Amino acid sequence: MRQKKLLQFLVGIALLFILPDPSMAQEDVYVDAPIDVQQPIAAQAGTAGNFPDQFNWGLVNYGFTNSVYYQYSGNTIFSGGNSPDSFLNIGWIRLIPLDFEYLPGMAYGADFLVLNSTSEEVYSGDKESVVGPNISMAAYLTNFKVRLFFMDPVNGLLHPFFGISWGLIFGDFNATKVGGDKYTTNFFGVSVSRNIGVQVKLGDRGGLVTEFRAVSAGNISTSNDPFNQGDGESVDLDFSGITIALSGYYRF
Question: Which percentage of the chain shows pLDDT scores above 90?
Fold first, then answer.
């Protein structure tokens, strides 16, 4: 259902960029006027170049190398859990042209991601016959990022890129044990990501972005250890994994 709603949203964005503007229609055509083939290209470059800031919003799927729920609780019902999704994935970058043949542009910026999940969503087995703790997680990821583009990110149709991100991961677990005891566990740590992706231009000011990130975040410390998975006072969680993002972007 989430993916269907996101697809409808992105298709709507694409149609807005692709459909012609009725105000652009002309009633008079002068067939004997000289044609300057360079003029439209120059005009398009000027229009796109006037909007160096880019905003994006979309869906992210975060596949953990080792289930965070399993690391936190030690309960094997979460060992092969489902990956959480997020609709609150927003980002901004500033585009900078470069005078290099194979790296015609770069960008720097930041993004913010919110992940919310419950034990029912993470558990992938038969829900009618399982007994386990009730856990909900709210995770927040903020990153500073740098991108290098292989092709012109202003005038080109495709903008493949690679980059790196540095960020923070923080949030909390709210857990109820099988016996009824309740706990709140905060967590905090840093991450580094290697990124690769491609932008598809659908208009002078908008398009789509697909991005893959290999996230390294192996020392996320907690405020307590209610399931005795660490030293009794804290447990280090590993949030490493792969994120897959699909977003629409708009330049301003």
Answer: 65
Q: Report the 3 state secondary structure along the chain.
A: CHHHHHHHHHHHHHHHHHCCCHHHCCCCCCCCCCCCCHHHHHHHHHHHHCCCEEEEEEEEEEEECCCHHHHHHCCHHHCCCCCCEEEEEEEEEEEEECCCCCCCEEEEEEEEEEEEEEHHHHCCCCCCCCCCCEEEEEEEEEEEEEEEECCCCCCCCEEEEEEEEEEEEEEEEEEECCCCCEEEEEEEEEEEEEEEEEEEEEECCEEEEEEEEEEECCCEEECCCCCCCCCCCCCEECCCEEEEEEEEEEEC
Higher-confidence position of 195 and 99 = 195
Question: pTM higher than 0.90 for the full model?
Answer: no
Q: What is the pLDDT of residue 11?
A: 46
